Amino acid sequence: MIRTRENAVIRTLVTLLSVVCMALGLTGCNTIEGMGKDIRKAGEKIERSAK
Q1: pLDDT at residue 49 in the model
Q2: Residue 3 CB neighbours (<10 A)
Q3: DSSP secondary structure letter of residue 28
Q4: Burial profile 19-41: b = 16 or more Cβ within 10 angstroms, e = fewer
Q5: Which helix (H) or strand (E) holds 31?
Q6: Rounded to whole angstroms, how far apart are CA atoms 15 and 11?
Q7: 1-51 residue pLDDT tens
Q8: Hey, CA dihedral for 42, 43, 45, 50, is it positive or negative?
Q9: CA torsion through residues 35, 36, 38, 43, sign
Q10: Does the reported pTM lie above 0.85?
Q11: What is the per-residue pLDDT for 18?
């Protein structure tokens, strides 16, 4: 009985950790994409001011 309970707790923790890692991964992708857009806009402004 105790072993089954321990297995359920471990399974729950692994699932929770997996969900958190996936969420962080998706957030990181969006952040990097946004950073790329900001850098591109800054480059465009520098090009316009150089002309």
Answers
A1: 85
A2: 7
A3: H
A4: eeeeeeeeeeeeeeeeeeeeeee
A5: helix 2-50
A6: 6
A7: 567 888 888 999 999 999 998 888 777 777 778 888 888 988 998 888 887
A8: positive
A9: positive
A10: no
A11: 94
The amino acid at 29: C
Structure tokens at 11: 């399974």
Q: Could you tell me the sign of the dihedral formed by the alpha carbons of 18, 24, 27, 31, in that order?
A: negative
**Whose CA is closest to 39, among 49, 51, 27, 31?**
31
Q: Which two tokens stand for residue 20?
A: 């958190």
Residue 32 to residues 5, 21, 41, 45, Cα–Cα distance (Å): 41, 16, 14, 20
